[in-house]
Structure formats: C-alpha cells, structure tokens
Amino acid sequence: MSDTLTKELKLTREDFTSDQEVRWCPGCGDYSILAQMKKVLPELGIPKENFVFVSGIGCSSRFPYYVDTYGIHGIHGRAPVIASGIKIANPDLKVFVITGDGDGLSIGGNHFIHLCRRNIDITVVMFNNRIYGLTKGQYSPTSERGKITKSSPYGTVENPFNPVEMALASGATFVAKTIDREPKHLAEMLRRAAEHKGTSFVEVYQNCPIFNDGAYSPVTDPKRKRENVVIMEHGKPYVFGQNNDKALNWSGNDFEIIDIEPEKPPKDLIVHDEHAGRPALEFMLVSMTFNPDLPTPIGVFRDIKEDTYEDLLIRQIDFVKEQKGEGDLEQLLNSGKTWVVE
Amino acid sequence: MSKKELQELKRVTIRFAGDSGDGMQLTGGQFSDSTALAGYDLITLPDYPAEIRAPAGTLFGVSGFQIQFSSEPVHTPGDTPDVLVAMNPAALKVNLKHMKDNAILIINTDAFTKRNLELAKYESNPLEDGSLKGYQVFPVNITTLTREALKDSPLSVKDKDRCKNFFALGMTYWMFSREMDTTIEWIEEKFKNKPELAEANKKALNAGYSYALATEIFTTHFKVPRAKKKPGKYRNITGNEAIALGLITAAKKANKELFLGSYPITPASEILHELSKYRHYDVKTFQAEDEIGGIGSALGASYTGALGVTTTSGPGIALKSEFMGLAVMVELPLVIVDIQRGGPSTGLPTKTEQADLLQVMYGRNGEAPIPVIAAYSPADCFRAAFEACEVALKFNMPVVLLSDGYIANGAEPWRIPAVENIPEIKVEYVTKSDDYKPYERDPETLARYIALPGTPGLEHHIGGLEKDESGNVSYVPENHDKMVRIRAEKVERVGNYVKEPELMGKDSGELLVISWGSTYGTIYNALEEIWQEYDNVSWYHLRWVNPLPKALGKIIKNFKKVLVPEINLGQLVKIIRAEYLVDAKSFNRVRGLPLQTGEVVEAIKTTLKG
C-alpha cells in the first residue's frame, strides 16, 4: 500500500493492542511473534477494521484475543476453512490464520493443504514448537523421530512433517520460514507474507520453554547459530558462517558447503531466486532443514504471482452476469415448463 | 378402437422399471412432465440403486420410477402401482410383489433370455409358467420393435437399443391419452447437437404410441379427469430444486449474498449442482475439501454478513457436529440442510429415512440446542428453506432444515408464488456504538447484536470459548449457567415467531396422530380413509420439531391415546414422551421407503382397539 495511505491512517502498535491480558507462559516464543505482528500491522496501509484474525485451538490460537482487530477463535484445525469463507464472501478483508504445528498439520492438515492449493488470499502463520503445549506435552506431527514426551515415553516411531515442504507441495504462492528469536527477520517475513496476494505461509520456529525448551537451540544459540543457519536473500548467494566465510554451492545434484573469503566471494556462486518457481531447487533448499551436515535455511523459499481463488470467482461471476444478465428472481421461479390453472 | 375400452379412473400409479442403464429415471421424468402439463396433480418417487451402472440384468441393478397422478390432490407416489413397465426379468421380479392385484404388466419379452432369467434368479420363465396369473400381462417385444422402427437409422444396434425406453414411453402415452409434444420438444432440445439421436428417439416414441394404438394388444386405455387445482401458475419441482430456489429467494429477500459451502453427498448433491448454476444471482458456491470445510466456510461467510448455508446428508451431519456447536456458541446465522438417507454409517445412500432427527437435535457436545424445521413434500421444501433462513437471520443462530431422499428426488406440481407476495427479511447490524458488546441481545428474540468485520471502531472477538456479555472469555460459573440458559431460551422463542400447524380433525377424541416431515402425504391419505369410518381420530403434523408447538401440550391432553408413525425406530416419539409425559405409541417401518397408506391405517385401527 502507498505511504500516503499509511500516513493518513496513522495507525500505531498501540492501536492493535487489545485490552486482553496475555496468558502465554513466561518466556514463550509467542510473545515475540505477537510483538512483531503488532509492529507490522500498522505499516500495511490497511484500515484496522479490515483485519480479521482466525485461529483454531492450541497455545498459538489464543493470538486473536491479543490483537485489537476482528477475530474468531474457532475449533481445532479448522481455521483455514473459516478464513476461506470469510475471504471469499468479503474479499476486502485482510485475513490471517494463526495456527500451530498440531492445529495446522495434524487435525487440520487436510484444510491446510487445500487452502494452499486454492491460493485464496490468506496469510497463514504457523507457530511451530514441535510439541503439543496446551494439552501439556505430547509429541506433534513436527516432533523429531525418537522424541520422548508424555505420550511417547520410549520415543516416537514416526517421521515428522516439514511444514515448508508441505506448503510448497500444496501450491502456496508465498512460503517462508523464520525464527522467534530473530525479531527483525520475523517482522520482515510477516510483512512480506501479509503483502503477498494469494495464500502466503510463514513457518515460525517457536520455542516452548515448558514442554520443549531448546528445541531450536542449534539455530538460536548466539554462539552457534551463524554456523547453522543460512539466511536466504533474493539475488544473493547462500553465505553463512561465523565470519560469513562459508557458502552453499550447487554441485549439480546437491548443495555442498565451500569456504569463501568474506570480502571476495567467488562470482559463479549460485544465487537465490524467490520468484523462479522451480520446485526442484525449492525442495533441495528445504531438505537441508533436517540434514545435520548442512545449515538450516530461513527466509523466503517461494514468492510467485498467480490468480487468487476469489479473483477468479469474481471474474466468473462477472462473466456469467455479462452472458445471462443480472439474475431476476421472478424469472428464476418461473423457469422450466410451466402451466396455468384458471 | 371399437374393441378398446376408454376407462375413467380417479387415480393411477404407474411404475417404470429396468436396468440402471435403461433410462428409467428419464422415462419417468418425461411421463411426469407431460402428466403435469396435462393438468394433473402428481407425486413421483425415483427409486434407484447406489451403483451408477450396476451389472446389467441383476436384481440389485434395477432402477425404478413411480408416479401417482389424479384429478384429486395427490399426497404420495402411491403404495401399490396399477401399471408396471418392466424392461427385463429382474425389474419384474423386484417389483411384482408391490403391484396391485390385477395390475397391468407391460413386459419387454425380448429381455427374457435364459441369461437374464438366471441373473434375475428365476428358475422358470414367469411369462410361461403361469406365475403371473392374476395380473393383466401385456408381452411386447420392445427391443425388436424399436430396432424395426429404426431400421433406416444410421445408429449402431447398441445405440438403437438405447431408444427402447422411448418406445415404452410412447405406449404409456397412448394408454393414458397423453400428448407427446412436451417430450418431442425435450428430445429436440436435449439432442440438438446430435440430430440422428434426436430423430431415433422421436421415431421410437412415435412407434411405441402407434403400436399401442394400432395393435389389439391393449384392451383398455385410461382417461383420468383433470385435476381441479388452485388457480395459478405451476411447474413441476423436486424437493432439492425447491430448496435451492428457497435459499436464493431468502437471500434476495434479505438483500444478501448466498454462500453455499458443501461437499458432494447423496442425496443432497443436487442442491449444490443447482446453486452452482446461479452465479448471476449473487450465489457463491464453494465445493469444500470435506464436510467440515463445507460448514466452516459457510460459517465464515455468515460472519461477514452473507447468508451462509451448508447442505449434506446424515454422515455429513456427523462430521459437521463440532462446527454446529461453534455456530451455537458464536451465535451467527447459518442454515444446515440435512437430506436424510438410510443409515447408520453409509447405510442406504439412495433410499429414504427419518432417522437423523435425534442426531440433529442432540448430536453435539455440551448444551447446544438448534431449531429444527422439517419439510413435508417436494414443493413444501421451498417454503421450508425460506423459513429456515428467516429464523436463522432473525435469531442469529444455526437452523437445521430436514428433508429426505424421498421428497428430495420426488417431484410434484408447485404453485409458483408471486415474488412481491414473499415477505422481505429485515436484517440489521450495529454500525456505531461507543460501548459495543458482542453478546448484548434483542430483548424480544434474544438475538445478539452483530457488528460485521469492516465496521470501524467495533473490532471484537468471538469464538468457541464461553463468553460474557462484553465478549470477554469467562469461566465464571454463574455466567456459564446464564449463557447456557439463554441459548436454550432463544430456541424456545422461535415458537413466538413461527406459525404453528393446525390440528386436523376434532379438538378432542380417542386418538391423536403426531407426525413430521415427509410422512405427511401417506398419513394424509391414511387419515382420509380413517375419517370415513371414525370421527374420534385427529392429526397434528409438525413443521418445527424444535421448538415444539406451544399448543401441542394442551392438544395431547384432549386425547386418550397418541400414535407417532415414523420411518425410524421411534425418534419423535421419544421426544414427545419425554416432553409431555404421555404414553405415546409409535409405528415404525425402516425399509428405506416411504410408509404405505394401508399400513398406517392398520396401525391407527390397532391403536384404537388396543
């Protein structure tokens, strides 16, 4: 949206602070996401009354209560369908879905993939703490295999989903990943997702200090994170490392790590292209997440333009109206074979 | 003609039966249309297998279409047909037991091959072994005659054989003195891009008609005097079509966009199909990924101020239950249409039943009452759908509309209402307030005041957690108790607004029959018969099952006995017994078919004696 509109609206973080007492556990990563969201919302140039936050059930799903906008706290896993109905019925609204790894990928997995496939203009933020928090500590569909929890005292025997992989495979047109402890990056991802037209998805690595503390320490610990995280930036090579002295190189069939001189990186390094829409490369990048020998990528995996569901629907309605004229009730009731009884 | 007798009949029931690929539904539909246009009252009963193309010749692959027409008002598709058109042995075998004594059987003898007789599990050929004694049998080699009529057609033999249903239709048109124009027009329109098919079907139709006229085979043809219906303009309509039109009409009258969130399911899918055609009527249809997505999207649409509707059958209601509870909690208007079918589980998808009543009444966690309205006939589905929307919008809550497979697919003439006579539905929203409370209520209806998203300054939250009046989450025990009672009271108050049914018969007496939904027609006929003999039986047919009519408690007290006939194992009767502490008896048949007049008459007589 234009700067002038933003200025006219003059919204601030305070405008989006609700009167509800926030009831997440002390130290929960959700606080950071809430803070960055409230920073981003006033910058979008959208009137406050046009925001709708929809959630399911779980710790993350309390989020709508804490932003002073329209909001529905729905039922477990079903936020995407409520949001779809809202957006299709009133495309003027800016609709967010706030979900978690259990809500979005387990009970609501079906709705999630279909939302991505339809490309309805909805922003989905998934707080991934790799655990069930609100039910007090069972493994989730993103918990790593072997995870010991209350419901898996001997370790889980199932493989986790990778949320980004699912969003990419399901056809979301904007897919990104970020971390609760990286406020600037988090804000930037939220802002870009919100500005994207079409289904946008942001996975946020979120620490649960009570039931899964330290799940992300390799990528959040200040001492280690620069070795373990590569921040993807459009048009730039995949440089990382404590002293920016490493880069990813494309060997022809996989990524490999090469040492570089921070001041003089080689010119032929592969650069990141968010808009390419090349699934092979996108999936190679996301597959690094679980590879202990490669860094975890964060940033935007995909940002492509495609017609949204609601735009296509409106175009279809206009087309039918053009062909058949505005529907007339009298005519509708009297259609087909009719006869008159005197 | 001299030998042929022109017989006057008051009412006739005819059944077309053949393989599911024989085009019997189409044949029956054409017969219904020309019957309606000829000025008769009628009701139809399509009866088809769940398999799309069951193996040819088998008993389970038989597809039937029954229609009763008369000069008098018709309330059912008829219990025992007078005429059967059987296209193969299986069709004869499946239907013979339902036929009236001395019924007319028009039988396609060409299909009575050894193989087909085996498939129909006949040990000997019924046409030859005397087992059809007591019926008027008209054997016609329909396949051969159709091929003969089409000998000049360029069509393949296979395609020619597919025209034989029109030959059969032609014969029945002669038998019942019908004009063929409507069907000829229909064929021309349907096959306008395939002139050779149009030509062949018309030829087959004419050949059937001429055959019946010219041969001496039929001794009788019938003339049924025209019906004296209420003046007005009419069309044939099925229950599902009527629901679609009722929903569109309600949305237009409420000045709203109609949003249908739905997932395909028999026998409700036609409503989705129908509504999907009407993009130019501001109808948005959303085929969701599952039943839950259907209702969830509809609720989301309602939240923005559209008229949200979801359509399904029993198994779908099971999946939607949690969302129905959310709709109760967030108090948004939502219409949930349940076209009941045989259950439990997948049950009998293409057959009818009334066994979802308790599910829609009580099938949710917590205290989650929802008003329930039941349509009683195909044409009545229009008014019932409109009324369901009216109540949902007036009270800001979900409403269940019950129909069933029988009236959903059955058709009858519908007197088309004048648009200007249909009331407007007034809906108001809060657009300005210094102190908006999402759960503040209209004192009369208890409907909460709604502010739509997009309204400046009224941002608020709703959700599945218990709230207090201000919209804040509340775990206060007294608040929960109060809110639970308000939600129940709101359903009760629907009773102040909707019209209560009239008691049919005397105000007091020996026996009160209470019924609901699609059994209306059968019970109407049964009572007509009973009233010729008894004057101490009255009848009350419910429209809203929840809330029950305020008058019902008093009415029940004026009768010694109560009988509740239903197509389930006694669901309304449980409610009646619990609500009024009355020893109500039930009469139940759960065959996947409508009740029959005769058995209801018997049940009433037995109850009177007992």
Short description:
The complex is a heterodimer of chains A (342) and B (610). Chain A has a domain at 3-215: 3-Layer(aba) Sandwich (Rossmann fold), CATH 3.40.50.970. Chain A is 31% helix and 18% strand.
Q: Choose one word for the global shape of chain B.
A: globular
Give the overall shape of chain A, derived from the CA principal axes: globular
The name of the CATH architecture of the largest domain in chain B is 3-Layer(aba) Sandwich
Low-confidence stretches of chain B: none
Helix content of chain B: 25-40%
Sketch the major β-sheet of chain A: 8 strands, mixed
Please report which band the strand proportion of chain A falls in: under 5%, 5-15%, 15-25%, 25-35%, 35-45% or over 45%: 15-25%
CATH-assigned fold name of the largest domain in chain B: Pyruvate-ferredoxin Oxidoreductase, domain 3
- Distance, first to last CA of chain A: 63 Å
- CATH domain class name of one domain in chain A: Alpha Beta
Largest sheet of chain B: 7 strands, mixed
Return the average pLDDT of chain A rounded to an integer. Answer: 95
Strand content of chain B: 15-25%
Distance between the termini of chain B: 54 Å
The CATH topology of one domain in chain A is given as Rossmann fold
Q: What is the string of helix and strand elements of chain A?
A: HHEEHEHHEHEHEHHEEEEHEHHE
Q: What is Rg of chain A?
A: 23 Å
CATH superfamily annotation of the largest domain in chain B:
Pyruvate-ferredoxin oxidoreductase, PFOR, domain III
